[in-house]
Design goal:
single chain, about 140 residues, mainly alpha, 2 domains, about 60% helix
């Protein structure tokens, strides 16, 4: 037995139990992609691949081809949108409290109730879109 993770045949690293090879493709996979990484990036990828139980190459391919994957730039834009929506929701909560005070004082709903309700509906729709985008169109 070899200590460095090689199979006894010397063909390559042993595959962890339960991890299947990728399916063969007619004609094979003939395209090669060269990726330049810093030492830290390579180590982080290798550690993540080892944790998941796949090769670094497979991790890169499956991560890139998986649906719902977002780049750092996309995640930052989504976070900014979520924070903006959160601020709107907090403002609407304040408006609802003011409307409740008015109803308690006068016994009648104020004229602003319809506009506030419509704004809450718009914010909920905005949140639904963000959640849908984050989950790749599937709701948890």
């Amino acid at each position: 037995m070899v200590d460095d993770g090689e199979q006894e045949t010397g063909v390559g690293p042993a595959r962890p139990a339960g991890v299947a090879r990728r399916r063969r493709q007619q004609g094979g996979r003939t395209n090669v992609l060269k990726v330049k990484l810093s030492d830290a990036e390579k180590a982080a990828l290798a550690a993540r691949a080892k944790t998941i139980g796949v090769s670094t190459q497979r991790l890169l391919v499956e991560s890139a081809l998986a649906g719902g994957v977002h780049t750092l730039t996309e995640r930052r834009a989504l976070l900014a949108e979520l924070l903006a929506t959160r601020r709107l929701l907090l403002a609407m909560g304040n408006n609802v409290n003011q409307i409740a005070r008015a109803v308690n004082a006068t016994g009648r709903p104020p004229a602003e109730l319809g506009a506030a309700s419509a704004a809450i509906t718009r914010i909920a729709g905005r949140l639904d879109l963000l959640v849908s985008h984050l989950t790749g169109g599937t709701r948890p």
